[in-house]
Each structure stands twice: as C-alpha cells, then as structure tokens.
Amino acid sequence: MTTVFAETLLMEDGWHRDALVTIDGNGRIGSVRTGDASAAAGADHRVVVLLPAPVNLHSHAFQRAMAGLTEGRGPDPKDSFWTWRRLMYRFLQSLTPSHVSAITALVQMEMLEAGYAGSVEFHYLHHQVDGAPYAALGEMSERVVEAAAETGIGLTLAPVLYQVGGCDGRDLGPGQIRFGNDPDRYARLLEEAEQAVAKLTSDCAIGVAPHSLRAVTREALAGAAALRSDRPIHIHVAEQVAEVEEVEAAWGARPMAWLLENHAVDQRWCLIHATQMQPSETEAMAKSGAVAGLCPITESSLGDGIFDGVRYRAAGGTFGVGSDSNIRISLSEELRTLEYSQRLRDKGRAVLAEQERSAGRVLFEEAVRGGAQAAGRDSGAIAPGRIADLVALDGDALDIAGRTGDRILDTFIFAGDDRWVRDVWSAGRHVVRDGRHIARDQIRARYREALGDLENAL
Question: What is the pTM of this model?
Fold first, then answer.
C-alpha cells in the first residue's frame, strides 16, 4: 500500500484539506481520509495540491514527429486540412515499426509529464508502405503496447478500421493503403491488438475505432460497433466542411444527424471533433450521452473550426480532451484553448463557468470525467475503489502560492503551464516525480535517434 498526503485535495463533492489517500496493490484508491493534518507524518508522499488525473482521449502518436514541418506555404492557393493531410501521407511513407515505438513512447511520456494519466491511442497505421501486412498483423499495435510498457501510461488501444477512400467506395490511395483493412481482417487485427494489450497491467484495455463515415461502409460500421459491445467506440465526425458535404451528398444526411438516426449512440461512443454541426445536432449529441472528443490545439492548427461548447454544455453534454496530432502536448493549454475559443466566438468571458464552479474547474472536472468515460477506464475521481490516476501540482509555483479552491485550477489553466505538474500516478504507478518521467532520458534518446532517421521525410 502507498499513501499520499495532500494539503489540498479535489474530490467529487469539492475541495478538502489535509487528506490522506491510500493506494492498494491493484492500483486503486483504497481510502480517502480528510481533515487530519497529523496524517502527514506517516505518509509515503506529501504534496500541496492533489487532483484526479485525466485521460488524453484522442492521439495519433506517430504525428508527433511532424511537429513544425507543415507550417510553410505549399503550391495550393489556400492551405487547409486537406493539404496538411497530403503532407502527413508523405511523412508516414518513411515510418518503420521501430520509429513508431520510439515516437509513441515520447508522446506518452509527454502526456504523463503534462498531467494525463491515461491515453486513448486512435491507431490507424497498421501495415507496410505498400499496404502489405507485416508478418504479424498486429505488429504496429504491439509497438504501441511496447511504448506503454515503458512509460507506464494507462492505455486504451483503439485500432482503426479504415476501409475505403471516400463515401463513393473508391479504393484507398497511396497515402492510405497502410491503414486499410476489410472487416474480416480488421476483426483479426483487433483480436491481436487485444492480446497485446493483455500483456500490460489490468487497467489497460482495448477499444474499437471506425475511422469516419467517409472511410467505412454502412455495413462495416455496424459490424465494427458490434465487435466489442462492452468497450468504447471512437469515430471522427463532422470535422471539416468538405467532409460534411461529401457525407450528406452520398448518405442523404449530415454526418452527426445520420449517425444519431442510424445507430444507438450512447455513453459508449466518443465522437471526435464535431466542429461542423448545426445547433440541433449539437443538442441531440449532448442528449445521447456520448462524449465529445475535443482536441482544441489540433483543431486550431488544422483550421477545423470551433466546437459549440456553450450550447453543448447547456444541453448536458459530456466532453473530454485529447492531443490528436500531438504537435503540442499540454493539458493546461488544451483546456485554455477550449475556453478561449468560446470567448472569441461569443465575445464574452468565463463562458463555460457555472454558478457554483469557475471556468477552470468546469473545464478540468468535465475533462476528467469525460476522458475516463471515453477510455472505458474506471477512474475520473478521487474516490475509494477508483483507479488511482492522480496528479500533484507544484504548491511553490509563484502564481498559485496561497490560493485555494477553484482559483487553483483557474490559475493553473489560465496563468500557468505544465511545468506546474510535479507528480503523476497512473493506476498507482508513480511515473512522474518532481516533474520528470522516470525513464525520461532513455525515451528522449530513442526519439532523437528516430527523428534523425526521419529528417528528410518531408
């Protein structure tokens, strides 16, 4: 058993002082005792501020190595998501399984150092450059698992079904053939990925991820959703105007409207981006119980648009955040960008705040709850029986010193940064200590070597 004493602790019912949290041998919270300053004396660890740590609910790990490589003006008169995607397809032609392992480990390490305890890897890079499977169909999934074993992150691996090149059913193009599977081969790949994840600790698990309505057929989407009926299902939806127009022309309805009409979308689903929606779609999505998987930094980078967070929250919607392209992995900045995008659109301040909770607390608590739901992970709160995903903030940080209650989170998100993250426990594994991941040097060295190999990929 491990014990952590916190001068300030955030639980589901609010803030508490002088708390002792015990973590059992299975990585779960055994007990929480508050209001006892004397408990600090015998604790294994003492921290100033202890919070539940969120899950990063959407990651394409390999894209981290593209950071900074796509900001120049190309030959097109206007750069867009679609021109960026062409560059991404070129880049992945150089990636080997060894590269993917090194890049993914760095991504997971940076997530942990940013304050995330878990990650959902939306994993679609499956095959060799010519589209032929590796000798082991799940080779690339094994490499994601290999990285998680090294970093200690709580992994939900969501292998992606990518079947066709568009709503017209065209064949996959040169940049997409490394993703491609028909439904039968996808089912086999999912099984191999699940076997790989089973080698990790028991808090790690599998998910299902049909890529998008433009990349699967109607029949394949239904089949994928039924493959693991007790596990999360993630899908990109309504990210770009051109995507919405393509789906509407081919399927007779806008993506979100079609999905809600034709599938029993519920708490199991995580709908990624959803930045191109009509008000009625936003409200219907909120009522479904699904999680909105928001990636504000990437959505800003790619020009996706702004999610209608105010309307969605007013309708009772659940959300979490992810780092998607991983060009910048920062929990505080992801949450700040989400709130600031709403302010810029609506010309207001503190737009996601509630009467009893500040903007920072709403952002943080809802991201914690939504991320846990999207990952199918029994975390999301500091409470007995829950997975011990915990993050401690630096109580000596200049701007946070002496602050209490919601102002702690407001200061962290709107005035601070991830340097304030001091310690992170993922299912009780103490993987970040004094702001550094325990395997930081070796992970960074492997990534640096991989980056050298990929220097001329774009």
Answer: 0.97
